[in-house]
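Retry 2 of 3 after timeout on previous attempt. Resubmitting structure tokens to design endpoint.
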């Protein structure tokens, strides 16, 4: 099977996963996507493929920006504030890594994202359901 066929198959699976995913799963997929793009960028830095590196870092940055910008800041919680600041820091470090072609900075950003993704993946199902219900009630109250 050609690489083009494999990529088309992967894209089809991703679209199917997105269509059936809840908000928790979508966030987890975004985090994994950012980590994947960072890993690809590291490989590009090692091979001195700077155009591809820039593309992967641009995509990773866009994902991190989306994660940052979709935080519910209306909750005024320390968690939201800290995550916002951390995502903002990661964005700046991704820019630094791009400019400096730095594997060390890439490792730093990956080491910041991994624990967030791991913790997100370990959220119990009951807690997710409670959060969905609270959000639904908040939306109904706003109507």
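Retry 2 succeeded. Sequence:
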């Amino acid at each position: 099977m050609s690489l083009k066929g494999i990529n088309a198959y992967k894209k089809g699976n991703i679209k199917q996963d997105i269509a059936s995913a809840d908000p928790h799963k979508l966030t987890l997929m975004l985090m994994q996507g950012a980590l994947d793009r960072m890993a690809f960028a590291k490989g590009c830095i090692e091979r001195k493929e700077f155009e591809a590196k820039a593309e992967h870092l641009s995509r990773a940055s866009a994902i991190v920006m989306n994660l940052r910008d979709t935080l519910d800041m209306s909750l005024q919680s320390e968690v939201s504030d800290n995550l916002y600041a951390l995502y903002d820091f990661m964005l700046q470090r991704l820019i630094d890594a791009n400019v400096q072609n730095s594997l060390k900075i890439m490792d730093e950003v990956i080491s910041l994202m991994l624990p967030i993704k791991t913790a997100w993946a370990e959220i119990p199902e009951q807690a997710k359901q409670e959060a969905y219900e609270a959000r639904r009630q908040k939306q109904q109250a706003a109507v």
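Attempt log closed. The chain has six helices and no strands.
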